[in-house]
Structure formats: structure tokens, C-alpha cells
Write a structure and sequence with these properties.
- There is one protein chain.
- The chain has helices at 4-11, 15-24, 40-48, 53-69, 88-106, 129-142, and strands spanning 30-32, 35-37, 77-85, 111-116, 120-128.
- The protein starts with a helix and ends with a helix.
- The strands form two sheets. The protein has a three-stranded antiparallel sheet with strand order 3-5-4, with helices on both faces.
- Helix content is 54%, strand content 21%.
- It has 143 residues and is of the alpha+beta class.
- The protein has six helices and five strands, in the order ααββααβαββα.
Length: 143
């Protein structure tokens, strides 16, 4: 199950935007003890919604564009794209790993975008080179 913060992290959209999309009926979930929870299917349907998909795609592309256009970085930084041929279960595990790791250790340090198009899971990570490399190492060690 994913929370609003997970969906916001994966999509690049703000939690306020996600809440607005809930009100508009673009994403369905379940309120448990005052917290919204979404299944992987709910998130997949939301990401594929033609009213939402362009905004999510623009946010993911902006991660790379912003990284490339910043000529005044103050430290060594890294941008990486992981394309993984995956089942829905594998894509869910990949997104869950990155969401949990970023929320626990790298919040505000590493930017993250995620998509799944039916057979390809794509994760985009940008941030300080050492932090992104450590997160990638942790991901590969967890596989």
C-alpha cells in the first residue's frame, strides 16, 4: 500500500495536488485511520489517467532537464535512469524500495521519479553523487 506521500514522491507532484486529484476522482484509495492508502493497481491506474499522465511525465522529464541545465552545482551530482524490464510485482518492489529508502534516509537529498508502462519500470534519481551511488548500491544489494 502507498500513501499520498509515496504517490507524490513517485510522480513528482505535490501532496496537495494528489489530494486535489482524489477529490476529482482521478485516484481512488482507502482512508484508514485518517490516512489515505492506495494499492499498486490504484497508483498504476492513476499514472495512466490521460488527465494526469502529461503532468507526471513533465515532472519526470523536469528532473533530468533541471539537472542538465544547472551549470552552477556546488558539489558533485549525479543523475541516473534505471530502465528495468519488470512485471507489475517487480515494479512495485522497485518503487517501494526507493520510496522507503528516500523517505527514511534521503528525503530532501535525492529527487526521485518513477513510472511503469506495463513491462518497463523506470526510476530517475538525481542528487549528490555519493548519495545516489549509495542508494544504487543499497538497491542492487537488496535485489
Amino acid at each position: 500500500m502507498y500513501t499520498i506521500n509515496h504517490v507524490a514522491l513517485m510522480s513528482g507532484l505535490s501532496s496537495r495536488t494528489i489530494r486535489n486529484y482524489i477529490k476529482m476522482g482521478f485516484i481512488e484509495g482507502e482512508m484508514i485511520n485518517g490516512v489515505w492508502h492506495f494499492s499498486a493497481e490504484d497508483v498504476g491506474t492513476f499514472f495512466a489517467n490521460p488527465n494526469v499522465a502529461p503532468a507526471i511525465q513533465a515532472k519526470r522529464n523536469a528532473l533530468i532537464f533541471d539537472f542538465l541545465s544547472d551549470d552552477y552545482k556546488k558539489q558533485d551530482e549525479m543523475c541516473t535512469v534505471i530502465d528495468h524490464i519488470a512485471t507489475l510485482e517487480e515494479a512495485n518492489a522497485m518503487s517501494e524500495f526507493f520510496c522507503d529508502a528516500i523517505n527514511k534516509e534521503w528525503s530532501g537529498v535525492i529527487d526521485f521519479g518513477f513510472s511503469f508502462n506495463g513491462n518497463r519500470a523506470r526510476a530517475i534519481l538525481t542528487g549528490p553523487e555519493d548519495a545516489v551511488q549509495q542508494l544504487l548500491a543499497d538497491y542492487h544489494n537488496a535485489e
